[in-house]
Specification:
The chain is an alpha+beta fold. The chain is built from 6 helices and 4 strands. Helix content is 40%, strand content 18%. It starts with 12 loop residues before the first strand and ends in a 14-residue tail after the last helix.
């Protein structure tokens, strides 16, 4: 059986998820999370893309990326192959670290970008890791709601239609979803491949 081709183009914004093999943890300690984030930064320099938001959960990852010139497969393969070797060496394992191929869903407009980013940032709350999204250390939420510079994420697209005080407005948008418990997004489907 052949794989479906993943369709991508320059300027496409994708919600990418990947899970640990057999739903096992991808990250076991602080250094694991830090290593993955350092690989994201290296990948941005090697195969430039825009990272709008992210969340690294213990057994899966969420990335919202905008493609510039390089295929998402090339970007994710670079990060995950290096991370997989690191993880297997550190924990004396062999075999796949990530389950199957990554999944991706095309984000078609700003509203969908806001909803998906909110969903990503509320993941640690929904899974009861933390009571508030800003309490979770391994996501871009704190960066997005602050005025501090961040070399990893690009906030401008999210801020796009928010006007003045975009940090406060984004926080309000996310916290509104938290109050009404509106987490549901359509199930991730494996988007057309490369």
């Amino acid at each position: 059986m052949t794989r479906k081709l993943r369709i991508w183009h320059s300027g496409a914004i994708l919600h990418i998820t990947a899970r640990g093999n057999r739903k096992h943890n991808l990250f076991r300690d602080r250094k694991d999370y830090q290593h993955y984030l350092s690989l994201l930064l290296k990948a941005k320099k090697r195969n430039p893309f825009i990272l709008h938001s992210f969340c690294l959960m213990p057994n899966h990852i969420h990335l919202i990326i905008e493609i510039i010139d390089h295929s998402p497969s090339k970007i994710i393969h670079y990060i995950h192959s290096i991370y997989g070797r690191y993880f297997n060496k550190k924990y004396n394992y062999i075999g796949h670290v990530f389950q199957d191929r990554y999944f991706s869903k095309l984000i078609k407009n700003w509203k969908q970008l806001m909803d998906t980013s909110s969903y990503v940032h509320l993941n640690p709350v929904r899974s009861k890791h933390v009571p508030r999204p800003e309490d979770y250390h391994w996501s871009s939420y704190k960066s997005i709601i602050s005025t501090s510079e961040d070399s990893l994420t690009d906030k401008e697209r999210l801020y796009g239609a928010l006007g003045d005080n975009p940090q406060q407005k984004y926080r309000f948008y996310v916290e509104t979803k938290l109050r009404i418990k509106d987490w549901a997004l359509p199930k991730m489907a494996s988007v057309e491949s490369e």
